Amino acid sequence: MDVATARMRLESMLAELDRSISVLRGDPVAGRDRSLADAGADLTDADRTRAMLDAASRQRTAVLAALRRLDDGGYGRCVDCGTLVPEGRLEARPEAARCVQCQSRAERRR
What's the whole-model pTM score? Predict the structure, then answer.
């Protein structure tokens, strides 16, 4: 993927993540009368929202790091081993920082 295309996709992803995070941080149930029966559902919704917010925030961090790698000239190289990240991986996940093997190792360590 060429640098201009990568930057455009990453900036688009960043804008979408910022919109999603903004919506998730809002309180759509504020001011609405709720029954006690809805309290449990609201807690579950809050947990789900928190999990989505955490995931979006992690992805936003990855996108910002990819934009920094673009600026520094390291985009498309694995941050662990330095080999080229396969083109198909970057097409699917423009924010990918690692080759498939290093990503697998990183996930096993978690």
Answer: 0.80
Burial call 34-68: b when 16+ CB within 10 Å, e when fewer: eeeeeeeeeeeeeeebeeeeeebeebbebbeebbe
Q: What is the pLDDT of residues 10-31, one digit of tens each?
A: 999 999 999 999 999 985 544 4
DSSP codes joined into one string, the chain: --HHHHHHHHHHHHHHHHHHHHHHHS-TTTTS---THHHHHHHHHHHHHHHHHHHHHHHHHHHHHHHHHHHHT-TTB-TTT-PBPPHHHHHH-TT--S-HHHHHHHHHH-
